[in-house]
Amino acid sequence: MLLTAIIFLPTLGAVALFLLDRRDEGRLRQVALAVAVTTFLVSCLLWIIFDRVKPGMQFVEQRAWIPVSGISYHLGVDGISLLLVLLTTFLTPLCLLSAWSQITARVKEFLISMLLLETGMVGVFCALDLFLFFVFWEAMLVPMYFIIGVWGGPRRVYAAVKFILYTMAGSALMLLAILALYYFQGQKTGVYTFDYPTIVAMGLEPGRQGWLFLAFALAFAIKVPMFPFHTWLPDAHVEAPTAGSVILAGVLLKMGTYGFLRFCLPLFPDASVAFAPLIFVLAIIGILYGAWVSTVQPDMKKLVAYSSVSHLGFVMLGLFAFNAQGIEGGILQMVNHGLSTGALFLLVGMIYERRHSRLIADFGGIWAVAPVFSAIFLLVTLSSIGLPGLNGFVGEFLILVGAFQVSRPFAALATAGIIFAAVYMLWMYQRVVFGEVRHEEVRRLTDLSLREVVTLVPILILVVWIGVYPKPFTAVTETAVAELITVVKAKTGLAVGFSRP
Amino acid sequence: MPIAIPTLDWTVIAPVLIVTGTSFACLLLDITPSRAGKGHLAGVGVLGLAGALGVSMILWGGPPASFQQMVALDDFALFFNAVFCVTTGLVLLLSVGYIRRQGIEAGEYYILVLFAAVGMMLMASATDLLIVFLGLELMSLSLYVLAGFFRTRAAGNESAMKYFLLGAFASSFFLYGIALLYGATGTTNLGRVGAALAAPGAARDPLNLAGLALLLVGFGFKTSSVPFHQWAPDVYEGAPTAVAALIATGSKAAAFAALLRVLVAMRALQADWLFLLWLLAVLTMTVGNVVALVQGNLKRMLAYSSVAHVGYMLVGIVAGLAPGGPAVLYYLVVYSFATVGAFGVILLLERDGRMEEAVDLAAYGGLGARHPILALVLTVFMLSLIGLPPTAGFVGKFYLFSAAMRSGFVWLAVIAVLNSVVAAYYYLRLIVFMYMRDPEGPEVTAALTPAAGLALAVAVWATLQLGLWPGPAFALAQRAIAPLLP
Question: What is the rounded CA–CA span in Å between residue A286 and residue A307?
């Protein structure tokens, strides 16, 4: 029952908000925040009760839903999805806090959209039935579309429509692949079902895996986003309101990488191995291209958006190394990126609220005016770069170790990407925070309020905690990752590494 | 000489008789002058339809029976009876306030709607080609008149004339097809036609193929498949919006019901009509969606969107009767609720205080702020038409594509799925206008009546219910297809 509670508590909150008076904005915000915090606390129970040693799915719930079509309401988490569920429930209250003063029009609809979005996101991470997964995957698009399109920036409609059509196009083919799996499963065993564990156990012949892998991979590659399917990201991130950007970067992008781990690898192991070189190349392009484009951005938010492309290139590199370090590093980096990029968007949003500009050229010398902001900004910047001692380093290091075992040239290129990350982040930080105050408006900027500090501090705690003592977080994923690698290796006969250029 | 009166099984046509009786009752009531307008006729109509629905539900599951071999009472016919009763009932509820506001209130309106319902029910139950034609004509003639109800508007007259002329042509093609088949097989009874066609050599007989082709032309017109769809946008635009709702849902469902029965009879010629339908499906989906992208008038946009949905349903038919049939039936239900609902919201809105209907996209600017409940309702219908979970439209499309994949029509499924994504754009555009744009032009007001509110509530509830718990309804659709399976 725990997973159902976590998934649908936000929905109940949305219903409650629907019934409240739209004019009492203060109460609406309090109720929404209370619901989000409660959901997070309930998900902490997951963390506490989760058995780190036992393989397989835990907190499993299965109930018949549409038996005539072989669809059941099947939920479960393992080490891979647990961290992502927690990331989602952790970031949502922070987003709602950040939207306290930023969203002033149609507050009720905004809060309802955010809560429904949370339902969809947690549902995606917990679903163990392919149909249920697809339902949550698609259903999550609608609130995100509204959040970008109604409360976003000047080009919000273009960004929202681009976002939803791009993602739908990807998922369209994934739906057909899901149906194909359903029929293969039925023809092979006589039992027609969409149940994920059953289909994984069935095992698909290598010859049939290619197209299905590509169909799934397209949907996930758009979500990650991998080059060249990333063009929706800058528009969506920049035009979305701060809360929208944080949840988009923090959680929605992870749904793509999670999809690769949960579906592409176990269901299509041979195809995954066969396509791994391609994924590697696209990941490296993403890392380097994302970094280079970030460097020349005049708009801070767009810079952070492109940096997401770069960071998630690292994650993809780690995932497709097919070894423990790579995948564990990838999962950890998913969480890290959610935290540090989320924090970056929060900070950019806070400064935008004050100056109504995101252009780097309009700032400079904030250090003198807003020291708390600058200090937090520095910490988050260093985390994003991957400074040892902070969370980014642990994830990136594990990924590089994993990639190095598979292909030294690719690992070397990826390491170069770290240097480029330092370039764009530090350069941005220097131009925005250090130096002389160049503009009068900057002199009048106020430092962070208590609410804003409270929004950021939890992230900072985690940033330092994961950086200094990551064991609790990696320990959660160990069993699931080992299981996954065993499955992939058994089905494909893969030894450590594969032949590389 | 003694006249032998054949034994008639009245229960077979009981639902049809009830609706016919209701329409006669309305005819009589219409004579009595009433200062309160003719709204009570709608009430009588809804009661009659509810009675027919009840009788259909009671007769459900019983052994199939036949009325003189011409009209059948099987689960298939009863399923469609239920669909027509509900759809027509919703249209009646929506019409009451609408036609009064537009100044076209007349008793004949309600009577013609009921006649159209009778025609639809006959088409779905017919096991004889002549009864199909009878039902088709009864439904079509009623709808031709209804389409021209805006007597004083040029668009209304154009709508009626186009519908009538093109419809008359299509009906005559249909009749000629029946004649050719009669010439070839010696009977108009669908069962016996099927048996005659199964005879060796019949599949190559040009008379049979010509008859089949002409029948498909007739059905193509009625279902507004491409390239027989040209009437749809103009007719929907000029007709009263409630009538457009009926044409979009009821007449299409009736045409699909008759088409399914006829295709089952033509099973022997499947090799011929399967490819034709495949082509028709692809053309219909693609043309419907692509042209809808550029429509600024909402009624025309919904007309082209209906064309596209017909294309999806044809995919289900191509997939075969056993896998695709229940999916087509389920999708008809889902699509009917969403379309009636969408037209229902449109007919409630008017600009400049009754001066004109709010049918252009710009009129919907800012609707989310001014009429939030109506905008939310319309959004739910748009999401269902796009096919996004958790609405019924998603489940309907899921079943259709599932059937296509099951039967191995992978490319057809890919085309259909990509078409759905393209279609999302123009449905989203309406949502964009409602929530993300400011109002422009004269103010838009909503004239919500209790009847219309009830109709919309039913449509929304059905859209969400069928999306979250489709199992029972889909099981009903499977049982409805069973009588048609060999």
Answer: 10
